[in-house]
Specification:
CATH superfamily of the largest domain: Nucleic acid-binding proteins
Order of helices and strands: HEHEEEEEEH
Structural class: alpha+beta
CATH topology of the largest domain: OB fold (Dihydrolipoamide Acetyltransferase, E2P)
Shape: elongated
Number of helices: 3
Distance between the termini: 94 Å
Largest sheet: 5 strands, mixed, barrel
Number of domains: 2
Strand content: 25-35%
Helix content: 10-25%
Radius of gyration: 30 Å
CATH class of the largest domain: Mainly Beta
CATH architecture of the largest domain: Beta Barrel
Length: 171
């Protein structure tokens, strides 16, 4: 006499572990897509972490479009424009200066300690925001002078400094 037994549990192919049912698989896919879409939406909506990297001439052309947006502004310190004073109320040095690129200039303000390489003609990147006609910097980064720079090391005052290749080619 032979007895056949059958199992009430579902099995995978070749008697392996049980497979996920159709509803579980759909739920898993829907949940995964929802998490991905939610993450992308969060990244897009939280633009406070974004900063635009612009040259002075780009911002000068459309200054109203760049008002109160976080920027990294690239240019050169206009020789003779650096003015500094001690603000005794907050015990910080304040700097007012101009930066230029491709013939356009912008007024800048910074309160704090500037790098040693910050001087007339220095190539700088300022982090901050444009308020009215003045760029208020929260950080100043000055490029180290090149060791391949000619003797004398400073830029002549009459030279138009332009750091973008497209601007130099007339684009």
């Amino acid at each position: 006499m032979t007895v056949q037994t059958t199992s009430a549990l579902p099995t995978g192919s070749a008697g392996g572990p049980p497979r996920a049912g159709g509803k579980s698989r759909v739920l898993l896919i829907v949940l995964s897509v929802a998490i991905i879409v939610g993450g992308i939406g969060l990244l897009i909506s939280d633009s406070s972490g974004f900063e635009y990297y612009k040259h002075v001439d780009e911002v000068a052309k459309q200054s109203t479009a760049w008002q109160n947006k976080r920027l990294q502004l690239h240019g050169y310190v206009v020789p003779g424009s650096i003015k500094k004073r001690m603000n005794h109320d907050v015990q910080k040095l304040e700097y007012k200066f101009q930066i230029e690129n491709c013939g356009a200039t912008a007024e800048a303000y910074f309160a704090g300690v500037v790098p040693d390489t910050f001087k007339d003609g220095a190539e700088v990147v300022l982090k901050g925001q444009l308020h009215g006609q003045q760029f208020q910097a929260s950080e100043v980064m000055a490029k180290c002078p090149s060791k391949y720079q000619q003797a004398g090391g400073s830029h002549p005052t009459a030279v138009v400094r332009c750091s973008r290749d497209s601007a130099e080619k007339g684009n």
